[in-house]
Design brief:
The chain has 309 residues and is mainly alpha-helical. Helices cover 56% and strands 5% of the residues. The protein folds into two domains: 1-83, no CATH class; 94-309, no CATH class. The strands form two sheets. A two-stranded antiparallel ribbon has the order 1-2. It has a two-stranded antiparallel sheet with strand order 3-4. It starts with a strand and ends with a helix.
């Protein structure tokens, strides 16, 4: 015989067979301990307890479990919803793949922007400490944050710091590379160097003639080697002569590295316009200014990646 039964969990009423004894609620799947509504309720002296009152259906979503009371959720702490600023995306946990993406995207964008800034400043003859690093750092922070997918969470800030440092260093290297690329074509030392080479070639030719006249084979060989070297340098372009001068001054057989070393160690630190003389500072001051620029770039880029808390 089918009787009507009420679920003690969600209050849903359903029909069940009084002989089968199946009191499983079809809505929530709860095995109810309620008494079938079609049966006669026991008397007060009976051992059966009265059925609990049904819960309001609007407080429980259809098919879901019973909700935990708000006081229990606040006490336990695991049911409280996270609170984020609705105007900003939530912080993300950094993993190795996100850190690599931040390094690649941030490094490439910082290096490209740094090369453009360094080349532009070198073209107009402007060198100001901190200005290029400021723009590059803001770009590095935005690029790293974009590559990682958002601001880093507090527990994984170490990954973001590694990506920021590498991106800022690559951006600063891009500034030096852009400056080198422009300075080697716009430098004015090639004309002076060609005049010196011309006078040196004339003097070597005169000494070589005297050595050949005296029959000194060793001196003749030495002078001929030096004369060939001078003629080889005269055949170089102006940009190649600029590279040669930087290599000789820095004692490093790589033009870009030699230029970067001289910019960091010797300066110039300040320069306004192509016609103005370079403002020199003490040797160690140029290195200190370069170090402060790097620290400023790392700090500003880090502010663009980390969360406020």
């Amino acid at each position: 015989m089918l009787v009507k039964c009420a679920c003690s969990n969600c209050g849903h009423s359903f029909l069940t067979d009084d002989q089968a004894g199946d009191l499983t609620c079809p809505r929530c799947g709860f095995v109810t301990d309620g008494v079938p509504q079609g049966a006669a309720f026991p008397t007060e002296s009976s051992d059966y307890p009265p059925a609990p009152p049904p819960m309001a259906e609007q407080s429980q979503p259809r098919g879901g479990p019973s909700p935990i009371p708000q006081d229990y959720s606040d006490e336990l702490g695991f049911m409280a919803p996270p609170s984020f600023d609705p105007k900003t995306p939530p912080p993300v946990f950094m993993s190795w793949d996100r850190m690599v993406r931040g390094i690649v995207v941030g490094g490439l964008m910082s290096a490209s922007l740094g090369a453009a800034i360094g080349g532009g400043f070198a073209a107009i003859g402007l060198i100001l400490p901190g200005v290029a690093a400021l723009v590059m750092a803001l770009m590095a922070g935005s690029a790293v944050r974009f590559g990682m997918g958002g601001r880093t969470a507090v527990r994984t800030r170490g990954f973001a710091m590694i990506a920021v440092i590498l991106a800022v260093v690559m951006g600063y290297a891009g500034i030096l590379s852009g400056s080198w690329l422009v300075d080697r074509f716009t430098g004015d030392r090639a004309t002076i160097t060609r005049n010196d080479l011309k006078r040196g070639r004339e003097d070597l030719s005169m000494e070589l003639g005297r050595a050949q006249k005296n029959g000194d084979a060793v001196e003749t060989t030495t002078l001929q080697t030096r004369l060939n070297r001078v003629e080889q340098l005269e055949g170089k372009s102006d940009s190649q002569l600029e590279d040669y001068l930087w290599i000789q001054q820095a004692q490093i057989n790589q033009p870009l590295v030699a230029y970067a070393k001289l910019r960091v160690t010797d300066g110039p630190v300040l320069k306004f316009g192509l016609e103005n003389d370079e403002i020199k500072v003490p040797k160690h001051s140029a290195s200190g200014v370069a170090g402060l620029e790097l620290l400023l770039g790392i700090f500003l880029a880090w502010r663009g990646v980390r969360t406020k808390r």
